[in-house]
Design a protein that fits this description.
The complex is a heterotrimer of chains A (274), B (442) and C (290). By secondary structure, chain A is mostly helical. In chain A, 78% of the residues lie in helices and 0% in strands. Chain A has helices spanning 2-35, 40-44, 57-65, 68-100, 103-114, 118-130, 137-161, 166-173, 178-189, 191-207, 210-215, 223-231, 238-258, 260-268. Chain B is α/β, with parallel strands linked by helices and 442 residues long. Chain B folds into two domains: 2-157 and 315-382, 3-Layer(aba) Sandwich (D-Maltodextrin-Binding Protein, domain 2); 159-313 and 389-436, D-Maltodextrin-Binding Protein, domain 2 (3-Layer(aba) Sandwich), CATH 3.40.190. In chain B, strand 8 and strand 9 form a beta hairpin. Chain B is globular, with a radius of gyration of 23 Å. The chains are: A mainly alpha (274), B alpha/beta (442), C mainly alpha (290).
Chain lengths: 274, 442, 290
């Protein structure tokens, strides 16, 4: 009896601890979601109102007056485009880096992660201007690929390292070329790794602010830029800002929830192996 | 919101009627009245109330001329980097753009990014007499002229004015402040943090604060530059810095050093501050029932007098320029001319835009929708003002950062810090910037 | 054709990636180095001259640069330090099977994937001294309200709190994965020897975890050094220059003053710090074999 009671007490205490440490990470997001349905007066009301008559006015403003639908589309095009292209050039590279120990190339690709993003901006602008690519999606997609591609290579090198070499050898015995073995045997077995890598590449592109700040124009404006412009413009309408925040954060969160397993793997990859 | 829609509808109807009045039905591209039909121009604008007003009118221009206008608009801090990087690369496709004469005029002129508009203005074929360049305010024309050449057409002017809460002033038995002493008295009296009301707010963020501080500086009898040298280390200047810091620290809202105009405006709108000093173009959202809790309690007055009198700024914050790198300069000029024509300016003034044409102001009808007393305050400000609100130099952004840093320090200490050495230091730095760009010591 | 590819797969496969890196990274980086030795500035009318180390000399004589270096380290050490401690604690709490573990892990993921610009704006509102939640909370607890982002003393901690909110989960999840991969034997031996829970933690769990924690800290520090979005949207380096990190300083030199030469030298300095810290950690790790 005593033990059970104490066990229960300990359990409650422990659950409370979990709540105390976990809750702060979600509360601000819940607050943002609620604020997006509030009027300006309700938002600044203290103590915060937890129960209120929701209004859709903020979303109306975001989508109808500010054209967020278009920015949503732009962000999607750029995120999907840069992820797919990064996969296309990143996967074969990751494969040979893993199989032939091309460490120098590997290190170079990883260096891209260390560089301060701002140092790219002026050279890029000059480069893209010479190529006449400034007001196109191409330049933005290419810039986002510089974040996505190294990520994909980094994750996939680790993944390919874990696949036994015998796989390709067996395929080659069956008459496959090496590249045939890569496409028909290795890639199909790498589904989870590719999922992890591409989810992360997509998220990083989706959230990127700095590159879009300099490289995008009206036609290619992405969401992070749109929400930033929204604030400093005319007056601060906090409800609308929060609605815009929901529009931009929600897809990232939904994607994360669907691919949760892969995201965790990707973010913790490499660290655990040491 | 409804009010805006209604206004829009009225404007659109007017446009339609005006368009019909033109009489001639549209003809194919060969029409001699439409020499630029089929051309496309790229217009880069700033997010500004004026941009909102003209944006819906552009289809009318497209119909009249057959020129297709691709418009983009950017937030202020983003626009200059955007323009600069594009022009630096020498591969820009921008034809017409909005520019800030005081902020980037010298920088862009030096790099020859502006098309020289003087020949266009002189050519009667390109600029018909009825468009009337002389109709623009003299000070506005001066603002966009550098070494004898005109590089842009002024769009709006804005002056530094005082917004205040007439209900709070009445309750406290106060009158609109006419001197800086009265301003401080009023701020002190109305400052009531226990009830969430601050006495006064003016911008306190490092870089943005400098322009609003300028009125205080001038009114104390000081200036940024004199004969090409920085003169911020004078006793008058010190007093202005101390005053600014004192009123904002003692009677300002919390967090004022992170406030530019949107934050200050939001506070005033929500009724949390009694006095706000900033540009006259920001009046719109204060009077909007939907956005402002105090829309019926706002009053205006001119900038209060200091030891050297009342000297607010009245400047050309935005002008329209044709890009020197443009490949469609004539079509671009056509568009810039149309945007600043009497017709469009009259429509803009009806929507509370403080436009740069004299004729628009002469028409009493145009300002009848303005808040009571506002037009008078704007007009009076125009008479007593100086035509700049920041040091006129190429490295103005850098100079603002240096000056703004002293302003922030003054606010943080309520003006009690030993500011004199800081001002001396700032003066040296600004002089170095001037020397670096060969602008010093004339 | 197929044979050709197969024989030359070693260079054909990585070629597109290598070219991409060359064009998009190597060129910009070399270009930045080159520009850092010139006086290229829009204010001087766009004439470019080679001036050797002058930009670096000016940088080293500019108190604002040292302030930026100081703020970069202050922000990074404060944020990553708290993240590490909190992250390890959270991982230790979550390291057992219980109902709702999946939900807890999902929640931890959310701050990491939420768009930083949007998060920055939301926190700006929380910190608003008059109408924000932060001061309301302080006041209801009977504490003194703060100016947060407008206060010289509070601004970096306030920004670090946002970074901590965003990135503690990453360290927690990494450590959690590390805990799951620890060998069982040492724990069993400790149990046999009658070690207390705290002793097990102190003498077995943490030492075994050090490599994992170290890598997590390095990864986080690299990103924290380069933090841009949050600081740019929340304070732009203010009040005064109290939250101006090297990244923000370089941005302001480059895209505020358009002094590309000076901006490039500041960026090279930032790069040196990021590279240097990473190499130092790797070296420490190798020498001490942890």
């Amino acid at each position: 009896m005593m033990d059970e009671k104490q066990g229960l007490k300990a359990k409650i205490f422990w659950y409370l601890m979990v709540l105390m440490f976990i809750l702060p990470f979600v509360l601000p997001l819940i607050w943002i979601l609620m604020a997006s349905f509030k009027t300006q007066a309700q938002i600044v009301a203290m103590p915060p109102e937890w129960i209120f008559a929701p209004t859709l006015a903020n979303y109306k403003r975001v989508f109808i007056e500010q054209n967020f639908g278009k920015f949503l589309l732009n962000s999607s095009i750029i995120a999907v485009g840069s992820t797919v292209l990064s996969l296309i050039i990143g996967l074969p590279a990751a494969y040979t880096i893993s199989r032939y120990k091309q460490n120098i190339l590997g290190i170079f690709i990883l260096l891209a992660r260390l560089m301060p993003g701002i140092s790219y901006l002026i050279p890029w602008f000059i480069l893209f201007s010479k190529l006449r690519l400034v007001d196109t999606f191409t330049s933005l997609i290419a810039s986002h690929m510089l974040v996505g591609m190294p990520l994909i290579v980094w994750i996939m090198v680790n993944y390919f390292d874990g696949l036994p070499k015998e796989l390709e050898e067996a395929a080659q015995v069956d008459g496959c070329t090496l590249q045939g073995a890569f496409f028909r045997v290795v890639l199909p077995l790498s589904g989870p790794g590719i999922m992890t890598a591409s989810t992360l590449a997509f998220l990083f592109s989706w959230n990127n602010f700095m590159f879009s700040l300099v490289l995008s124009v009206e036609q290619t404006k992405t969401l992070p830029l749109a929400i930033y412009g929204f604030v400093s413009y005319a007056e601060v309408s906090w409800g609308s800002v929060m609605a815009a925040a929901v529009v931009i954060i929600a897809p990232a969160i939904i994607l994360t929830m669907i691919f949760q397993r892969y995201v965790i793997k990707g973010l913790t990859m490499g660290a655990v192996k040491g | 919101m409804r009010k805006v829609c209604l206004l829009l509808a009225v404007v659109m109807t007017l446009v339609l009627i005006a368009g019909c009045g033109g009489g001639e039905p549209a003809k194919p591209a060969a029409d001699p009245a439409k020499p630029f039909a089929g051309k496309t121009i790229r217009f880069v604008a700033a997010n500004h109330n004026w941009t909102d007003v003209i944006k819906p009118l552009i289809p009318e221009f497209e119909k009249q001329t057959g020129i297709k206008v691709n418009m983009e608009s950017y937030e202020e801090q983003q626009l200059t980097p955007k323009l600069t990087t594009e022009f630096t690369s020498n591969a820009s496709t921008i034809d017409v753009f909005m520019t800030r004469p005081l902020q980037e005029g010298r920088l862009f002129s030096k790099n020859k990014w502006y098309e020289n508009l003087s020949p266009y203005l002189a050519d009667a074929k390109k600029t018909p007499a009825e468009w009337d360049w002389k109709d623009f305010k003299k000070s506005a024309i001066d603002a966009v002229t550098l070494e004898g050449t005109v590089y842009a057409v002024p769009v709006v002017t804005e002056g530094e004015i005082v917004y205040y809460r007439k209900d709070l002033f009445e309750k406290a038995g106060l009158k609109a402040p006419t001197t800086l002493e009265e301003l401080e008295e009023a701020a002190k009296k109305l400052h009531d943090p226990a009830n969430g009301i601050a006495g006064v707010v003016v911008r306190g963020q490092r870089n943005p604060s400098v322009t609003q501080f300028s009125g205080f500086l001038f009114s104390f009898g000081a200036d940024f530059l004199k004969n090409g040298r920085c003169v911020l280390d004078t006793p008058e200047s010190l007093k202005a810095f101390q005053y600014y810091g004192r009123i904002l620290k003692n009677y300002g809202p919390m967090g004022v050093t992170n406030m530019s105009w949107p934050q200050a405006q939001a506070l005033f709108q929500s009724g949390k501050v009694a006095i706000w000093i900033d540009a006259s173009t920001l009046v719109g959202p204060l009077m909007d029932k939907e956005k402002s809790a105090v829309y019926d309690k706002v009053a205006f007055t001119t900038f209060p007098a200091g030891p050297a009198g009342a000297k607010p700024y009245d400047v050309v914050p935005w002008a329209l320029a044709v890009a020197a790198q443009s490949k469609n300069k004539d079509a671009a000029w056509e568009f810039a001319k149309w945007l600043t024509s009497k017709d469009i300016m009259n429509k803009a003034i009806a929507k509370q835009q403080t436009v740069a044409r004299n004729s628009s102001w002469a028409d009493k009808e145009a300002t009848k929708n303005w808040p009571a007393g506002f037009a008078e305050v704007v007009a009076k400000t125009g008479q007593i003002s100086l035509s700049y609100d920041r040091p006129l130099m190429t490295a103005v952004v850098e100079a603002r950062d240096v000056i703004g840093d002293v302003i922030v320090k003054s606010i943080e200490t309520g003006g009690t810090a030993d500011l004199a050495p800081m001002l001396k230091d700032a003066t040296i730095k600004v002089n170095e910037m001037l020397a670096k760009n060969n602008e010093g010591g004339k | 054709m197929n044979r050709f590819i197969e024989r030359n797969i070693v260079w054909i496969f990585p070629l597109p990636a290598a070219l991409f890196i060359l064009l998009m990274m190597a060129f910009p980086v070399l270009y930045t180095f080159w520009v850092s030795f010139t006086d290229w500035s829009v204010a001087s009318g766009g004439n470019v001259h080679f001036i050797g180390l002058k930009n670096y000399y000016d940088l080293l004589n500019n108190p604002r640069f040292f302030n930026a270096v100081k703020m970069t380290f202050y922000f990074t050490i404060l944020a990553v330090g708290v993240e590490t401690v909190l992250g390890v604690i959270i991982a230790l709490i979550l390291n057992r099977e219980f109902w709702g573990k999946g939900i807890a892990k999902t929640i931890l993921l959310l701050p990491m994937v939420a768009t930083p610009v949007a998060i920055g704006l939301a926190w700006t509102l929380f910190y608003e001294p008059t109408i924000g939640l932060a001061n309301y909370t302080l006041r209801s607890l009977g504490l003194q309200a703060s100016s947060w982002l407008a206060s010289r003393d509070m601004v970096v901690p306030a920004l670090a709190i946002v970074d901590i909110w965003e990135w503690t989960p990453m360290i927690a999840l990494i450590v959690l994965a590390g805990l799951a991969s620890l060998p069982v034997e040492p724990f069993e031996a400790a149990k046999v020897d009658g070690a207390s829970a705290f002793q097990t933690l102190r003498y077995i769990t943490l030492p075994l975890l050090y490599p994992t924690i170290l890598v997590a800290v390095v990864l986080r520090s690299i990103d924290a050094f380069k933090t841009f979005d949050i600081i740019y949207t929340m304070t732009a380096g203010g009040p005064g220059f109290a939250s101006e990190t090297l990244n923000i300083y370089a941005y302001s030199l480059g895209f505020g003053y358009f002094n590309f030469g000076a901006a490039s030298s500041a960026l090279v300095a930032l790069l040196a710090i990021v590279l240097g810290s990473s190499l130092l950690t790797l070296w420490v790790r190798k020498t001490w074999e942890i």
